[in-house]
Design goal:
About 35% of the residues are buried. By secondary structure, the protein is α/β, with parallel strands linked by helices. The protein is built from eight helices and eleven strands. It has two domains: about 190 residues, 3-Layer(aba) Sandwich (Rossmann fold); about 55 residues. The longest helix is centred in the first third of the chain and has 18 residues.
Amino acid sequence: MNIIQTFYNNLAFHYHKLFLDWESSTKGQAAILNKIFRDNGFDDTSGILDCACGIGTQAIGLAELGYKVTASDFSQGALAEARERAEKRDVNIRFEQADFCALSETFSEQFDIVIAMDNALPHMLTEGDLENAIRSITERISSGGIFVASIRDYDALLVDKPAYSSPYIHKTDKGQRVSFQTWEWNGECYKLIQYIIDDEDSTQVARFECKYRATRREEITNMLLSNGCSQVKWLFPEKTDFYQPIVVGRK
């Protein structure tokens, strides 16, 4: 089991705590993605592969809008949590464990839309690993289909290489929850430690560690264009209301 699997297996049960209201966030993010899909000529008859589904934050909301959703992830723990949450929301999603660097090993079919949200691609720590992931993903997109992904604004972050993220403070019925990250940089890569502090009847601290590579938008654009996409555009938070820049590549 590698560091990415360990990170998400351990984080899966706690991931919803990063949101003030996870269920509302699934609906809000689905609405944002739905607009992007429709602006690019797709509707709820389109087949979607969420190839980094985590606990189902995007997949569940999109399924509730009527899309035919297939969801995969590298982490068994995240998939188990996603399945349980999908059952509770009474949505039909096909779940599969799959590495987005080798999607053809799990999926023979292609999809109208493939998504990888919430900074999934920068887990690839080398240029070669990232290109393998993008090649694997674009191979699963139908001709004329699109790839939609979000990443942190590393073009901005690489200027100062901050040591931590701003904390999120969420009020709860019994107190508050505080979450934040520390970032230890080593060149263009960094070790991330995610802290989640539940300060209620008692104080509990959860800690999760992983690594990322600060990937610039130009690099992703060039790799998409060299791996089957005919056009690539970036959408920014001021336009989409999503918290990270979003790339849309059309095959």
